[in-house]
């Protein structure tokens, strides 16, 4: 007994027909083509599937698609793009917070909601916020560094280079 649901994903309205047992992750990836969120554990342990549903971080592998009917869903694809990356995406790249990249979309989406709620976190708070996301490549130190760096940039604490180039590091020749 299929059911047609309506939801908005990354600002685009969608009508999709799903089985009542279809998980949101499968509706997003298989029915609508949003492949940014990844299928990891399918038991809500790893967080690779994290998306935003009405502004809240949700693990899409344990959320039924029919429960998202009428909701605004945001995936990593809408956070930024190659030409205009979100500060979290930039900091994950700059701080080497991604290795294989499989967990990265979920980490970034979880961190984005966290930083909206806590714009000036300490490292312990960052670790606690990300405890529901697993990195199989053990990049946790760099992930925490990336979230910390993004928080500073989002708060305006990081000043861009004024010479039109890159900032000169101390001790450089």
What would your notes on this structure say?
The protein has a 5-stranded mixed sheet with strand order 2-1-5-3-4, with helices on both faces. Mean pLDDT is 90; it is low at 159-173. The termini are far apart. It is globular and about 50 Å long. With 173 residues, the chain is an alpha+beta fold. The longest helix has 15 residues, at 140-154. Strand 3 and strand 4 form a beta hairpin. The chain has 2 domains: 3-78, Beta-grasp domain (Ubiquitin-like (UB roll)), CATH 3.10.20; 87-154, DNA polymerase, domain 1 (Orthogonal Bundle). It contains 5 helices and 5 strands, in the order ββαβββαααα. It has helices at residues 24-31, 87-94, 104-117, 123-129, 140-154, and strands at 3-9, 12-18, 50-53, 56-59, 72-74. Helix 2 (87-94) crosses helix 5 (140-154).
Summarize the structure.
With 173 residues, the protein is of the alpha+beta class. The chain is 30% helix and 14% strand.
């Amino acid at each position: 007994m299929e059911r047609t649901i309506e939801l908005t994903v990354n600002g685009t309205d969608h009508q999709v027909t799903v089985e009542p047992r279809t998980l949101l992750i499968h509706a997003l990836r298989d029915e609508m083509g949003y492949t940014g969120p990844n299928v990891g554990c399918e038991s809500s342990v790893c967080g690779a599937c994290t998306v935003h549903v009405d502004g809240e971080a949700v693990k899409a592998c344990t959320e039924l698609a029919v429960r998202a009917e009428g909701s605004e869903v945001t995936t990593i694809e809408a956070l930024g793009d190659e030409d205009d990356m979100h500060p979290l995406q930039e900091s994950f790249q700059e701080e080497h917070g991604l290795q294989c990249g499989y967990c990265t979309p979920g980490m970034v989406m979880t961190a984005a909601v966290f930083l909206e709620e806590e714009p000036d976190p300490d490292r312990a708070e960052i670790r606690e916020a990300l405890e529901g996301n697993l990195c199989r490549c053990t990049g946790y130190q760099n992930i925490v560094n990336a979230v910390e760096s993004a928080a500073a940039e989002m708060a305006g604490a990081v000043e861009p280079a004024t010479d039109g180039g890159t900032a000169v590091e101390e001790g450089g020749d």
